[in-house]
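TA notes. Do not distribute before section.
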Amino acid sequence: MSRPSLPSSFARLITVAALAVWAAGAGATVAVAEAPSPQAQASADASKAAVHRSAANNDKEIRDYWTPARMRAAKKETVPPERHKAPAQLGSLGARSAPGAPGQHAVMPRSTVTLLSLSSSAVWTAHGQMPATTVGKLFFTEPDGDHECTASVIGSANRSLIWTAGHCVSDANGHWYSNWMFAPDYSDGSRPFGTWTWKNVSTPTGYLNGGDRDRDLAAIALWPRNGSNVADVTGWQGYKFNYGYDWNAYEFGYPYDTHPARSGITGQQLRWCVGQTWRPGIWPFQPSQQGIHCDQGHGASGGPWLDDLQLARGWGYLVGNVSYHPDDNSDEERSPHFGDAAVNVYNAEQGV
């Protein structure tokens, strides 16, 4: 007859207690790791990366799908409701950053003019050079039809990564969109650098399964085109994760409207703002978000917020992306804070 076994949890408890007794008798100091609190664990779980992979190299199929007519007819993206608010990010993964750089074929900027504040977005006219070459339209398909957002090229080991908003890749209710195609330096139908199709996409689980706006961010790895990766052609922006909330940031996007409303906004032109960012709310009830005064509306979703963008070099540090306006009649715009969720999403796309 076999001896009955102890439950595994009880056996572990006896083992830990025995080790503690032995260490105390030996005069050693015992450090017992505490389990994370339920709130800390919930925050970590919501910041994990959810990953969606393409079943095969469907590059040609997606290119064939996106005819000029379909691109023109794509609808501006809207932000789904926040179904579940996850605990704030903890920053436990630490700060990390990397610089931007020009691509092999990128033209260096000719402009050196710098503004400190512009909240009523203006048309960006310096195309064919950084930073415009690193920003473009992102086309994709939802169950109700074709849509579009904005995305930007970010530095990565695979030279194939673009960054956008979580609501440009998922409905925030557990479902992924499809058919992503990126057109860098898009301008009024012109696609001077061609198009690049998706290979892999990630967004935080807290966004995929609840629409948590503190985690409204996403990264997409793209297939090479004609043997070249997108960043090698366009150049790329740097990034800063788990840093602060206060930046002097340029914002870029392709809006179809503005907040407050203005006329003449077509969605076919790259627009920009620049200004100081801040952490909204009143401590200790502040969300893990950043605010900026910029009137860009639908279509600019996912557009980059770039700190330390020196126009003479064409690159800065990605510190945010266009998420939503808390008030349609105000130019206050929000981005998720790039904390642990950004680190996890970025890392999920590095080996692709």
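Switch to the second chain here.
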Amino acid sequence: MSFFKPVSELPLIGPCARQLGRHVSSPVRSMTLAAVAVMSLAPGVSMAVDKVSAVHAFPGFLVYTKTFLSMVEDINKRGEGIVEITVRGGPEAIAMFEQPNAVRDGVVDMVHTPGSFYGASVPEIDAMVASRVTPMEARANGGAAAMDAAHQKRFNVKHLGWIDGGVKFHIYNSKPFNFGDDGVVDLNGVKLRDNPIYHAFFEALNATTASMPSTEVYAALEKGVVDASAWTSIGLMDLKWDKFVKYRIDPAFYQTDLGVIFNKDSWEALSAESQKLIQDVIIEWEQKSYDDRQVDIAADAEELQKRGMEFVKMSDEASAKYLQLADDASWNRMKERLDKMKDTETFDLLRKHYYDQ
């Protein structure tokens, strides 16, 4: 029995549902609009609160989800009487890899998810993955606007913000790492859990990979289905993977690409006041979440070492080669996907905003 409902069976909620009003017959719709106009002029009568539905990719106990839920609470508090966001849940409501299509198709209004989950549709997301800038710098230099434009063009959503930026990834292993003659970690023979964000990099490292959602990794490590997994610098202990993985390779690579995306039609159905409030709060949380996560990075590193995890460092030369391999894998994947779309301009634009600073 499946715990996940197909997105086609989920009810439309919020602005998504209001889009159905476009299909009402003209006379009825005209009378309805006229009635609304009259009511809006009547003393003591206020317009309805905008209702928004949302889901999040990861379980509620992870720090990234806690950030999103706190941000939603902030929006609801400051938007009382204007807009109200109802969070349906996480992967138990809509499976995490199905969520991007759900928001694209209007099944849900808003999703908090890694961009790499839909990177095949929006190749530009790899600019965030291999970025050398912070979310705030990307917003100031025009990168965020370009990213939003790409999402609207290719995926029928608005990209409202890059949340919990500045957090990077490590590979964690249950066994000691091996190294090649050049000093770069050698993953040949390692059974490595994969994920869309770093798949291209792992291919470049000739790793043997198994793709699976984060919710299945604990059992996979426990049963020996995988030996190792990449994860961010924080949150590993929340997942309890540190029970199995005892070695972390440094340096860290990439950045988290967690964003808030909003169905374009639903967004346009919101009042201008609701749009401004939601966007302004998310921009504030780009900075707040970035600052908070830097504190968490230091705290988690200290605690992991207290628990006996060994941080294995490559030489400076090997580290530089390792990071260049990671960056090239992401940017090359982006270019290949854009080339297939006959897009010859976006790559250089985003490279300027996110990397060549």
